[in-house]
Please model this.
Amino acid sequence: MLRERLTKALKEATLAKDTCATATSRLILAALKERDIAARGKDGGGEIGDDEILSLFQIMIKKRKATNEMYVKGNRQDLADRERDEIDVIRRFMPEQMGDAAIAEAVAAVIGELGAGSLKEMGKVMAALRERYAGRMDFAKASAVAKQKLA
Model:
């Protein structure tokens, strides 16, 4: 499903002569192909699933945010703007992100379901959150909330 959207978006961006969207879509598709090849080598399977694609999007956004900050500190606003535009293109393919209240609610629910009571069980909580909310949750925020609740 996401692959089809990406391919379609690449065609539309190319026809619209949107250079940023075209370049970003190509980068995403290249990263997907790379992940597919790596997955084939591991288990002989085919393409990665939508959950893994969403995780890839989050990684790509995180990298671009870090790069954006470096460009801003280095007074390279043109490059910082380019990174921000790429983040916007990537976010088009992601589901709506959960807000802080929804993250806190989800963390509390998972902690309750797992019966987690200490920081030692943080890994189990985060694994369950990643499984259920891939692509929809900022796991850095979720980690901070979970740490606070489990401490």
